[in-house]
Amino acid sequence: MYEHPSTGSEPALGAAEGSFVIRLRTRAPSVALIALLVAVAFVLAGQGTALAVQGPTMTSAWVGEMPADLDSPVWERASSVYVPLTPQMVALPRLTKLSVSQVVARSVNDGRRIAIRLEWTDATRDARATRPDEFRDAAAVLFPVSTDVPGICMGAPGQLTNLWHWKADWQEDLDRGFQEVRDAYPNFYKDSYPFVTGQPPFRAPADFAAPDARPYFPGLAAGNPLSQPRTSPVEELLASGFGTAAHKQRQGVTGRGVWTETPRGGRWRIVFVRDLAASDSESVNLESRSEVPVAFAVWNGSNQEVGARKQLSGLITMRLRSSPAAARERLIETTLTQLNTPPTYLLLGFGMLIGVVALAGTWARRRARAAGQSSVDGSNAES
Ligand code: HEM
């Protein structure tokens, strides 16, 4: 006869059956738990979710109304992330000594437009790059155009990156009028130019508007984007690896930068603003994305930094929060998509297997109880 040690009242089962039921009863929960964990890991791995923690992340907070300027209280709704910078040491000319150690980044979006704000300490305001020994302060944001994680050195061949480059001298051109040679060399004088309007020493490019006067500004006349009247302090560039940076045909990023004196010298606060939706195939698309890799670079003009000579961050993940309604919609959408995937079937399979095992256990128990009852009834009948 075989009795269940815990209850003693259980009807007699065959020895093999009895120990199977007991083993099933005691081990099923842990087997089920392990199976569930394995299945969940499968599903997560199947969805490409990184199980290991990656670098700092920043969140673009959803706001009902975009901030009007850098001092808007709306910015309080976005958390700041402190992003460490390192000197560019890969390509010549290298930056041998760091002059800006970190940038503080935050972002907001209203589901249609996104604003990315950067702040960094810089004791001097360098907003001109006219004289050969002048270098302007600047900062940039790097996004991959495709969904892949780009090489940090401005992408790589076949890996296009979209760069948003804010420049202090372009900001100055917008705030105080186009800075031309005479701003850098006050004693510079020109008494006449054919076809110019206005009075000597003539102001560029305003006094050179006549078509025949244009050739005196070959960059302007040839359509060189760097010589055109400014409409934004930000230039959009494309690059597939360093050495390939080029002006992007369609520009779509605006922005603003303000330098403020502080007890520690000074700091720049700048903002980049663009539509979430890409204006063309060469722009990063941020619309209906939950996250995107991003990197930052900063140039300090007083340290003669320009081009390759800069400090940069590593790639960080920017999470894009959307409006509660959009977030709900996306959650339903992603859940439905995730449900419709092989790993989920696997999970369902595991779930059913566990269900079957549990059912089998119950069945075996009931059967044993029934068998026990009939043998008790039988022995009662005999007695
Ligand atoms: C180790 C990685 C990097 C290397 C080796 C590198 C190298 C260079 C080089 C050689 C140039 C000169 C133009 C050109 O040839 O393309 C350049 C320009 C530029 N780079 Fe990078 N870069 C790196 C990372 C970055 C990152 C992370 C960003 C943005 C977040 C960035 C933004 C820019 C911009 C906007 C320019 C144009 C600057 C100007 O016109 O003054 N770079 N870089």
Compile the SSE list and pairings.
Elements: H1 15-46, E1 57-62, E2 81-84, E3 86-87, E4 102-109, E5 113-121, E6 138-144, E7 161-167, H2 168-176, H3 181-184, H4 218-222, E8 234-239, E9 246-247, E10 254-262, E11 265-275, E12 291-299, E13 311-312, E14 316-320, H5 324-339, H6 342-382
Parallel strand pairs: 1-4, 1-14
Antiparallel strand pairs: 2-4, 3-13, 4-5, 5-11, 6-7, 6-12, 7-8, 8-9, 10-11, 12-13, 12-14
Bound molecules: protoporphyrin IX containing FE.
Protoporphyrin IX containing FE binds next to strand 6, strand 7, strand 8 and strand 12.
Helix count from the secondary structure assignment: 6
CATH level 3 topology of the largest domain = Immunoglobulin-like
Arithmetic mean of pLDDT: 85
* N-to-C series of helices and strands: HEEEEEEEHHHEEEEEEEHH
What is the CATH top level name of the largest domain?
Mainly Beta
Shape field: elongated
Beta fraction of the residues?
15-25%
CATH-derived architecture of the largest domain = Sandwich
Count all strands and give the number: 14
Task: Supply the number of structural domains.
Answer: 3
Helix amount: 25-40%
* Low-pLDDT stretches: 1-11, 49-53
Largest sheet: 14 strands, mixed
Oligomeric state of this protein:
single chain
Classify the secondary structure makeup into a structural class: alpha+beta
* Bound heterogens, unique: protoporphyrin IX containing FE
Q: Mind telling me the C-alpha Rg? A: 34 Å
Describe this structure in a few short sentences.
With 383 residues, this protein is α+β, with helices and mostly antiparallel strands. It has 6 helices and 14 strands.
